[in-house]
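step=encode ok
step=design start
structure_in=
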């Protein structure tokens, strides 16, 4: 199974992106609430196919963090790892999933 972890409270997306850019020379993209993404296929995977995936934001249903977790789990042991940073009303359900007592969509 892929890994997803919950970290401390996040902040405004653009603020967080600017702080992260000061810490590491890596590409950072802020994806707004609604984004049209291309279909994923083998040629569009990460170079090593393993991610990692970082989500920083408020843990609310409309942001689809449960879908992210389901996708990571679908990839299995050889898939990407996810780090989830934030607070919000969805956090308790996500933590229950992390402990193995529930699915990400309850």
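sequence_out=
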């Amino acid at each position: 199974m892929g890994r997803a972890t919950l970290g401390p409270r996040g902040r405004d997306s653009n603020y967080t992106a600017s702080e992260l850019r000061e810490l590491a020379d890596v590409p950072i993209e802020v994806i707004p609430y609604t984004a049209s993404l291309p279909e994923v296929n083998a040629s569009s995977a990460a170079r090593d196919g393993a991610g990692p995936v970082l989500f920083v934001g408020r843990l609310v249903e409309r942001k689809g963090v449960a879908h992210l977790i389901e996708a990571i789990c679908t990839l299995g042991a050889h898939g990407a790892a996810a780090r989830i940073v934030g607070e919000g009303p969805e956090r308790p359900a996500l933590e229950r999933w992390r402990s193995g007592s529930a699915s990400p969509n309850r």
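step=design ok
step=annotate ok -> The chain has one domain: 1-23+50-106.
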